[in-house]
Structure formats: structure tokens, C-alpha cells
Amino acid sequence: MKIRQKGTRPVIKLPRAVYIAICVLPAVLTILFYSLRFVPGVMEWASVRVSAPVRGALGLVSSIYPFSLMEILCTAAVIWLIYYIVRSIIVTTRRREKLKILSKRLLTVVVVILYVWGLFCWLWNSGYHAPGFADQNGFSGEGVTLEDLTFVTRMFAENANELSVLVKRDDDGRYIEDRREILEASTEVYQNIAVRFPGLSGRMYRPKSMMFSWLMSRTGYTGIYFAFTGESNINSQEPVFMMPATVTHELAHQRGVFAEDEANFVGLAACIASGNTAYEYAGYLRGLMYLLDALHGADYYTWLEIGGSLTDEVNRDWRENYDFWQKQRSVETGIAFIDNVLTAVTVTVSDAVDTVYDGYLRAQNQELGIKSYGACVNLLVEYFAAPDSAG
After folding, report:
1. Tens of pLDDT along 145-181?
2. Spatial contact of 298 and 290, defined as CB atoms under 8 Å apart
3. Torsions phi, psi of 57, nearest 5?
4. Burial degree of 225 (CB within 10 A; 0-12, 13-18, 19+)
5. How large is the greatest C-alpha to C-alpha distance in the chain, in angstroms?
6. Residue 13 φ/ψ, nearest 5 degrees
7. pTM, two decimal places
């Protein structure tokens, strides 16, 4: 290693071999992952022996801070990338060896991206290719009967109806449970379901409300687990009665449940078994939405019957949730031209995000893409239709 003076700044010059190693390492990590991702034993080893302890340590560190480190890191990354692009344009236009300088700066961006992606593959994507929660806990993975689907849907509707009048509401019937209290209770809601599924036991770190929740709302997402910090991040604008189910979904990812359908099932089962009224109601309500959607295509008349049995409180919450997400796809400033343009941009961006995320999930062995979230129906029916289920 040599240190030379460049202007008033000392510049460290590493040997060529070190530079090559730094550039090649992330490519090797990425190629190695894609070469071994179809070997379940290797992916399971990486997920259990590498990913889980590393993410646990990162979660412990990030839990010290009340704010989302993910948001800070992502914001800093975007600012750095913009600065680097602008700086590269300025430097390239001012010097003679333009192609050489541009190549070096492009190589820096590529190497950084490869490092991020290569590490992310081993830290998170490996879990998608290892045996999942359903396989580990003896779920059959087969289809469900219409009889069982009807039974579980009816049971969810009855419990949602019963709990809908037990949660806190104002004089107008509007749901008024406190978001802060929901988050404070989050680290304890897995205790009961962990008795049934010991693999879900372990330390939980409280999810964090995001500053950029408005952006999450506009793109149609309620939460995100970030492997690089071990954090569960929550969209704080989501209707509060749905928030507990989002919390438990992201906590399922924190506990190493990777597939979205399995994380949905685990989150809903945790809500229902929690003993906390707000969480129980959210579990039954969100589960009911998935179940009724499946029943609609299987038995329309039973779907009508069960849907017609819902209480005013359940219908109100359901409608409020629908209206909230519909509103996120439009912009209203009072100026028609601006509203049309911004609405078109919002819809385009939201659809683009869905397309990218759908492609990402399919590439990680999730054949249904973003429809994987609703695929939890089979797991819900198999679990709650069993005589000894926790439901």
C-alpha cells in the first residue's frame, strides 16, 4: 500500500491485486449463490447458520434506535447515488481521459451494487430456497375442500363479528385503538403461537413506524422487513384496525419465515392466538378478507350468505380499508389538469413497483409473485379446520 499526496489530500493507493480482489469478490458471492440456490441443504445452512444469527445481531443493534435505520440508509444511498452521478458528469467533462475516468466511476457503481446484491442474496434470498415454514411444520401443501373452506370462513366471520364490538370505538362506531399501544404490545404477541410452533420462539424487536409512510401508501404497501438492519418497518398511515396483522406479518419475517404466504399465515395465527383483542380482531378480519375472496370463486351463494352476516362494525372497517387504498391511487388538489397528471404518475409508479416486486418474488421461487400474499388461504384452512387447531 502506498500513500501519495494529491493536492492537499493524501491518497491511499492500493496494489492492483487488491483492487481486483475488491471488484471480483461481490461477483463471486453472487455467482456462488445462483449456482447453489437449487441445493436446499446449502440454502438451509446459509439461512440457519449465517442469515439468522447475523440478522438477529443487526436487529439487536438497530433496536437501540427508535427510528428506522433502513430509511436513513436508503435515503443516504439515494443521495449518494445522485451526488456520484452529478460528480461523475462534472469530472468527466473537465478532464481529457474521459472514457477512462467514466469507466472507473461506472465500475465503482457496479461493484457497490454487486456487493449489496450479493450480500442480500446470502442474508435474505437464501431463505426463499430453503425448506419453508410449511415444510418444517408438517403442512400437507395440498388443496383444500370446499367444505373446509366454508367452515373456516364462517368461523372467521363469527369471530370477527364478536370481536368487532369488543375493540375500542367512539360514539360513531369508528375504531379508535391506539397505534402506540399496538406497537408496544407487539413483542409479546408471538408467545402463544410459539407454543404450537417452537421455531417461532425467540427475541422480538418492536417494529418501527416509517417517516416515509406516505410513500408506502402511494405504492400500496403496509410494511417491509429490511435484512440489512434486522428491522420490521410499518406504514403508520394504514387503517389502525389492520395494523396488528401487518405488525405480526413483518415479525414473522423477523423470525425467519421468508415466503409471503407463510408469513401471512403465521402473522394471522399469531394475532388470533395472542390473547390481545385488537390483535385477535385484526387477525380474523384480514383472514376473513382472504377467505371470502377465495370462497367467492368457489361458492358464490355461500359467499353472499356469509358476507351478509357481518356486523355493521365489520362492514364499516372493511369499507374504510377499501376507501383508504382507493384514495391512494388518486391525487386531489382541486385543479383538474394537475390532478389528472399526478394521478396518472401515481398509478404508473405503483404499477411499476408491483411489477418489479412481482418479478423479484417469482425469481425467488415464489411462483405466484405478489399474489403469494393471498395464497395463505390453504394454510389457514388446513390449520383452522383441524379439530385441535388453536382457532
Report:
1. 999 999 999 999 999 999 999 999 999 999 999 999 9
2. no
3. -65, -40
4. buried
5. 81
6. -110, 110
7. 0.90
